[in-house]
Design goal:
Largest sheet: 4 strands, mixed
Strand order of the largest sheet: 1-5-7-8
Number of domains: 2
Number of strands: 10
Distance between the termini: 21 Å
Shape: globular
CATH superfamily of the largest domain: CRISPR-associated endonuclease Cas1, C-terminal domain
CATH topology of the largest domain: Four Helix Bundle (Hemerythrin (Met), subunit A)
Mean pLDDT: 93
Structural class: alpha/beta
Helix content: 40-55%
Low-confidence stretches: none
CATH class of the largest domain: Mainly Alpha
Strand content: 15-25%
Order of helices and strands: EEEEEEHEEHHHHHHHHEEH
Radius of gyration: 19 Å
Number of helices: 10
Amino acid sequence: MIKQTLVFCNPASLSLKDRQLVIKREGEVCVTRPIEDIGFIVIESQMVHVSIPLFNALAENNVSVILCNGKMMPSSIVTPLVGNTTQGETYRYQIEASLPTKKSIWKQIVEAKIYNQAQLLYQLGKDGDELKPYWKNVKSGDTDNREGAASRIYWRILFGNDFFRERGAEDAPNCLLNYGYAILRAAVARALVGSGLSPVLGVFHRNRYNAFPLADDVMEPYRPFVDQLVYELYQKGARSLTPETKRSLLSILTVDVGMGEVNKPLSLALSSTTASLVRVFSGEEKQIQCPLLL
């Protein structure tokens, strides 16, 4: 089941009653939404009030709450501490995972990311062949940083020689990419918690100031899906984050993703990826399920 994404751009009061999210706006009739149908809540307005009982109910149902700053850019994610009945066991798998296992996981992630980048370039009528030597020759742990080298080529081909990819930049298409990646990151964190994994224990990303390094690992092969959406918006003239472009970027959660022989909405594909990651950590399997750009 695809969960709903609710976005609050204007002042509102959010509370809990009878397992329902109650939305109250001044001068309007209250609206309710079943909490079990919600996957994500994005709060843009600084004048939205949320009750503590509602926060607890959202956490119990693994609903990710994305909070935005004064510039209406996602700045933090609220996720539950417990999202799976076997979470303690899964944490042990993560902590005890060997270095070769982690290197193998990162190799697979990098291969899938570069492959999807190449497929996107092909779809857009651009030269994806330049990336073929990179995703075909990733070493265990990507020790020679094929990911970084491929990314430099990829961005040049995708947006031109003058484009510089920069986090936090407010120019387009950077601002569109940053927003889309923030939504994707929250979705990955939610899927990880739902599978009993800790987003804090990364495979490759280990920055001490990063609260979600495993989310940053797992989201890598999914980034080209955001890039595809951003490229389409940019070609249509999108140069800033308007309510319309944000709605379009939020649709990233429902785009079709290839997972083996079946297609799934991205939010469901993420759960397949994180569930397979648990099996790799536990030693049941060697391969994680990575998405394929259709």
